Amino acid sequence: MSEAFVTVAGSKIHYQHAGSGHPLLLLHGLVGSSRNWQNNIRFLAQDASVYAVDLFNMGESERVPGLDAGLEATADRIVAFMDALGVEKADIGAHSHGGAVAMMLAARHPQRVRSLVLFAPANPYCDLGKQLIRFYQTRFGVWFARQIPHLPRMLKATALSRMYGDPSRVAEGALEGYITGLHIPGTIDHVLQIVRRWSADMSLLRSMLSRLSGKPTLLIWGDRDRAVGLVSGQQLKQVLPQSSLVVIHGAGHIAFEEMPEICNQTMRDWLLKMPHAAKSAA
């Protein structure tokens, strides 16, 4: 597995790469990084050319002040990233907010996306977390967000453990994939921009979902997800005719990290069938 930077629109983007075959892009969630996919990349690279990306202004990628944090702009920048690497079309695996980005990408640039594998993607049908979103839109919430990088490690570890169905499954080093980038100036500002326009972006995404009606999509959800509820996943499945929903029993919001063996095999089996699925959906 290799690590590299590529310049996209004047910004240095960090990514990890492994394997050969059809391209598979992995997009992390809010405040995450490509490190979140450490237990998935090598397995998936048996059959694909895997690119785990540090999204713009996140992870080890360069921070650009004032960068548009909206779903449309972020999706378009992923296409620019693909162009920079010479990737014409890819399967997109994505988690949480990254899942919303992936859906917007497929809606705006359908010719660049072969299929979607979405782990509990943020979506317009989820009511969980709305109070938290509103809190971070207040003056006190903005102040508190700026203190998060300086909070004790124990509190951050507790917050991560709540994203798991079973806190004992949080692996050594997993926390670093979420907190290391927080200390880089500009990260919190970018996250706050995402939060500030959350409702508008979700409304926009809802209006675009009909464009995904023919796109093969695998939805993977933990039945103990406290962040993006399984009920919203069931609603999303009804809206996307070419989608399948797999429920991982006992898993929380980050199923691919909590139960990587099950999720890896589920992804691999589904992706290997994709040429037939794509043909039938055409």
Summarize this, please?
This protein has 282 residues and is an alpha/beta fold. It is 41% helix and 18% strand.
Notes on the protein architecture:
41% of the residues are buried. Strands 1-2-4-3-5-6-7-8 form an eight-stranded mixed beta sheet, sandwiched between helices. The chain has 282 residues and is of the alpha/beta class. The C terminus is likely disordered. It has 13 helices and eight strands. Strand 7, helix 10 and strand 8 form a beta-alpha-beta unit. Helices cover 41% and strands 18% of the residues.
Round the mean pLDDT to the nearest integer and report it: 94
How many helix segments? 13
Q: Assess the beta-strand content as a share of residues.
A: 15-25%
Class from secondary-structure proportions: alpha/beta
How would you write the strand order of the largest sheet?
1-2-4-3-5-6-7-8
Measured between the Cα atoms of the first and last residue, the distance is 34 Å
Radius of gyration: 17 Å
Report the helical percentage. Answer: 40-55%
Number of strands: 8
Please tell me what the overall shape is: globular
| Low-confidence regions | 276-282
Order of helices and strands: EEEHEHEHEHHHHHHEHEHHH
Largest sheet: 8 strands, mixed
Please write out the topology.
Blueprint lengths: L1 E7 L2 E8 L3 E6 L13 H4 L3 E6 L17 H15 L4 E6 L1 H12 L4 E7 L10 H6 L3 H9 L5 H9 L14 H4 L7 H10 L1 H11 L8 E6 L7 H10 L3 E6 L6 H4 L1 H13 L1 H8 L1
Parallel strand pairs: 3-4, 3-5, 5-6, 6-7, 7-8
Antiparallel strand pairs: 1-2, 2-4
Helix pairs in contact: 2-3
Tags for this model:
41% helix; 282 residues; alpha/beta
